[in-house]
Amino acid sequence: MDEEITTGEAARLEVTFDEGSMLTLGARARVVIDAFVYRPEAGLDRMLLSSTGPFRLVTGALASPATQIDVRTPAAVIGVRGTDYWAGPIDGVFGVLVLEGVVTVTTNAGAVVLDEPGEGVNLEGIDLPPGPVTQWSADKVDRALATVAF
């Protein structure tokens, strides 16, 4: 598929997929849709994205446990299951914040699971272990979500 979506300086963009998933991009973001398959009658649900910059993904009908949703970023691969989450640059690192559902964040040196609303992890690179899972402060959550707010 390899469809590319980019945003400019101070831009925001929201994409709604046929099955209801919403992808919101912040400023200077780039997403490549590597694969998107939605065939519930055949049990085939799959979304593969590559992303840089801030984004938020809220899954729609792809939220079933059998669905494969993976997002590759410069800092980690994010596996998604029935989720609303944010990811992007924050505080000098790449952060991932779960708002609802479960997210698995994997680097070449380890993996963590975010499964409680407000949990986040900071990542310093794909070859380094993920930082500890912490409950993000309200201020940090607000700053993260502001990067994709209209």
How does this structure look, described?
It comes from Bauldia litoralis. It holds the Pfam family FecR. It contains one helix and twelve strands. It is mainly beta and 150 residues long. It has a single domain (3-145), classed as Jelly Rolls. Strands 1, 2, 3, 4, 5, 6, 7, 8, 9, 10, 11 and 12 form a twelve-stranded mixed sheet that branches. The longest helix has 9 residues, at 138-146. The two termini are 28 Å apart. The mean pLDDT is 91.
The best one-word shape is globular
CA-based gyration radius = 14 Å
Low-pLDDT residue intervals, each spanning 5 or more residues:
none
Oligomer: single chain
- Whole-Å distance between the termini? 28 Å
Largest sheet: 12 strands, mixed
Q: What's the CATH class label?
A: Mainly Beta
Structural class comes to mainly beta
Kindly estimate the percentage of residues that lie in beta strands according to DSSP. over 45%
Indicate how many domains the architecture comprises. 1
Continuous helix count: 1
Q: What is the N-to-C succession of helices and strands?
A: EEEEEEEEEEEEH
Mean pLDDT: 91
Q: What is the β-strand count?
A: 12
Instruction: Report helical residue fraction.
Output: under 10%
CATH T-level topology? Jelly Rolls
CATH architectural type: Sandwich
Organism: Bauldia litoralis
Domain FecR protein: 4-103
Protein name: FecR family protein
InterPro entries: FecR
Helix and strand topology:
Elements: E1 3-6, E2 13-16, E3 22-25, E4 30-39, E5 44-52, E6 55-58, E7 68-72, E8 77-90, E9 93-107, E10 110-114, E11 119-123, E12 134-135, H1 138-146
Parallel strand pairs: 5-7
Antiparallel strand pairs: 1-4, 2-3, 3-6, 4-5, 6-8, 7-8, 8-9, 9-10, 9-11, 11-12
